[in-house]
Design goal:
There is one protein chain. This protein is about 40% helix and about 15% strand. It has 16 helices and 16 strands. The strands form 4 sheets. Strands 4-11-10-9-8-5-6-7 form an 8-stranded mixed sheet. A 4-stranded antiparallel sheet has the order 12-13-16-15, with helices on one face. The protein is globular and about 60 Å long. It starts with 15 loop residues before the first helix and ends in a 7-residue tail after the last helix. About 40% of the residues are buried.
């Protein structure tokens, strides 16, 4: 089976991936798609339905999780026997369909990459050696459910100094990544919560909000960030937002929009804002922008961040600052939880921060990423006005607008043919955006070696069949 014809409605409030998931599921149940049939590849089906491969991946992943289809490495997706569905569902946690190996590329513009060449290994190793010691054998036991106090104290102090976040260590919870903390927040906010999220935005958070038919609504973004007037027209009472550097457009939420967003939250008692401050440490122009939480007067902002960009993604450590009313609920409902972050890692990081090495590392990386950005900007200038940049004020990615007749997917494919990984903006779209005359590419530069930044940009532009301006 090379194609599947389903009618997807971009204008629907139901996300495209959920529409597709439901359609395939129904076809399997009613026998339209028979047992053993191989489904189209994600690329083929994405091209045929004119949607992103991320949409197909989310739909297929949910079908795999429910046992309607199975994923066989290097072979594809196959429809399962419904009579064996209960058995399949029992097996899922143990095998959960090992993902196909992620291909490597000679040049990788993925926005999640960091520069590993300048990590202070010697310093980190010293603190690790100090912690892994007989004198700290108590760290082998379970610690505080919210994470050990010593680290929460360091995070609270750092957030106030760097982001203006007002908190006490008692308000902070640690978790092994955003994907572990977000479900806890969702449980705290209750089943009646209706979530609004940025479109385009993080696929992970979209998936969390869509799970179990949870009510959610995408809110469009423009050059000033999320459009609050669109939020006000919705029934949502929780807004997930990345105000300091919107992902993936790079827009910074304007002062006016910040006031509007907080005003929206204050209008009803059950309204909250989830502020994801994922890469706020790296800002290159103008004064630092304060966090929403720091200017919130009524305890309506849930502040969320991670060490993935500032230190390393593999540390798997995120944290949230909960308003006092919610932290009381958290203590009542989740006090039996065990912290999901290894205690030794917590104490290594706490000592690393206390002695000033974290701030020193951030200052160093800020200069390096700024230098990379300067090189990119200078290189791209050679291709203007065919190629233009936006969203470069902060963070480790920016947006390229390509003034061409080619489609976004054609550009991504051309790059791939030259062994270059880059993502199109549509990969992060949950529902159809207003038509844009030119395609956009999300260019992450964090993982590029400093000495290869210029040549990598030239190779990308060459792969996209773009020539220098005369």
């Amino acid at each position: 089976m090379d194609f599947l014809m389903f009618q997807l409605i971009p204008e629907s409030k139901t996300p495209l991936y959920e529409q597709l998931y439901r359609a395939i599921k129904e076809a399997i149940i009613n026998g339209t798609i028979k047992e053993g049939i191989k489904l189209p590849s994600k690329r083929k089906l994405a091209d045929y339905l004119a949607v992103s491969q991320t949409t197909i991946e989310f739909a297929y992943s949910q079908l795999v999780a429910e046992g309607f289809i199975s994923s066989e490495p290097r072979r594809g997706y196959f429809v399962q026997n419904l009579e064996e569905l209960a058995i399949i569902e029992q097996d899922i946690p143990s095998i959960m369909q090992e993902a196909v190996d992620i291909p490597s590329f000679s040049i990788d513009f993925s926005p999640g990459k960091i520069d590993t060449d300048f990590f202070p290994f010697a310093t980190w190793r010293k603190y690790a050696k100090d912690i892994v010691n007989d004198e700290n054998k108590d760290l082998l036991q379970l610690g505080h459910p919210q994470g050990d106090y010593v680290l929460r104290q360091q995070i609270s102090s750092y957030l106030f100094q760097s982001r203006g976040v007002r908190s006490t260590p008692e308000q902070i919870i640690l978790g092994s990544g955003t994907e572990q903390i977000m479900p806890l927040i969702i449980h705290l906010l209750g089943e009646k919560a209706i979530y609004a999220f940025e479109n385009p935005g993080y696929p992970l958070t979209h998936q969390l909000f869509f799970k179990d038919s949870r009510k959610s609504v995408p809110i469009p973004v423009d050059d000033d960030g999320v459009i609050v007037s669109k939020l006000e027209q919705s029934y949502a009472n929780v807004m997930y937002v990345t105000p300091s550097h919107q992902f993936p457009t790079g827009a910074v939420l304007s002062a006016t929009r910040r006031s509007q967003l907080l005003s929206w939250a204050y209008q009803q008692d059950n309204r909250y804002i989830i502020e994801d401050d994922y890469d706020s440490e790296f800002r290159y122009t103008g004064k630092p922008i304060p966090s929403l939480q720091g200017i919130d007067q009524n305890e309506r902002v849930i502040y969320l961040s991670t060490f993935s960009k500032s230190l390393m993604p593999s540390l798997r450590m995120a944290y949230a600052v909960l308003p006092k009313s919610l932290i009381l609920q958290y203590k009542q409902r989740f006090s039996y939880y065990s912290a999901t972050v290894p205690r030794m890692d917590q104490h290594i990081l706490a000592n690393f921060m206390e002695e000033g090495h974290f701030a020193k590392h951030l200052n160093k990386m800020r200069k390096i990423y700024k230098r990379k950005l300067e090189i990119i900007t200078k290189t791209i200038m050679q291709y203007e006005p065919t190629v233009t940049i936006s969203g470069e004020q902060a963070g480790m990615h920016l947006l390229l607008t390509i003034h061409t007749t080619k489609t976004e997917q054609e550009l991504v494919n051309l790059a791939k043919q030259s062994d270059i990984r880059i993502y199109g903006l549509q990969e992060y779209v949950s529902s159809k955006l207003e038509d844009d005359s030119f395609p956009k590419l999300v260019l992450g530069f964090g993982g590029l070696p400093l000495e290869e930044v210029s040549s990598s940009i030239h190779q990308l532009i060459h792969a996209l069949e773009i020539t220098k301006a005369p």
